[in-house]
Amino acid sequence: MSKTWRTRLQLAGGVLLILLAAWIVITGGGGDSSPGGSTTSAATSATSQTEAGEPPSGTTESGSTPDSGLETIAESQLPPEGRETLELIRSDGPFPYDRDGITFGNREGILPDQSRGYYREYTVPTPGEDDRGARRIVGGQDGDRYYTDDDYASFAQIEEGQ
């Protein structure tokens, strides 16, 4: 390989690294795990469920909480794996998945607006799934907790102790 081609390849690689770094900064670090990258469809899905008067899947008919305005789900209505995950969160682990406890960026805009780093997400295992599945509990620094079973398209605030 000639010296000219080597120099061109190094230059192209450097430019790619700069572009990648800029993309990471612009998108907020990429530390959230919202899949698919399409926040519009997730927000639209949740909005249409609310407009239709249907609670997000897995929620109770008990209404909205004063702090979030979201539908609620009683802790006792969570799947058994959700109740186990909630206990792990309360006892600060140990958690079975490496990504448990990572920052949840709320890119969908469904949860109440908070500063970056306020929310953390935790896996609720789905029996029969080979991966982490679509179920999560997202917890806020003030102890507010939310459940999703549809890959962040909708959330219900967990009524703990209920």
TrEMBL record:
Q: Where is the composition biased (Low complexity)?
A: 35-53
User: Transport: present as a keyword of the record?
Assistant: no
Q: Does the keyword Hydrolase apply?
A: yes
Annotated segments matching region Disordered: 31-109, 123-145
The terms under GO molecular function for this entry are: hydrolase activity; RNA binding; RNA endonuclease activity
Sequence ranges of Basic and acidic residues compositional bias:
81-90
What domain of life does the native source organism fall in?
Bacteria
Q: Name one Pfam family in it.
A: Ribonuclease
Any idea which UniProt keywords this protein has? Hydrolase, Nuclease
- Polar residues composition-biased segments: 57-67
Protein name per Swiss-Prot or TrEMBL: Ribonuclease
> What is the native source organism of this protein?
Janibacter indicus
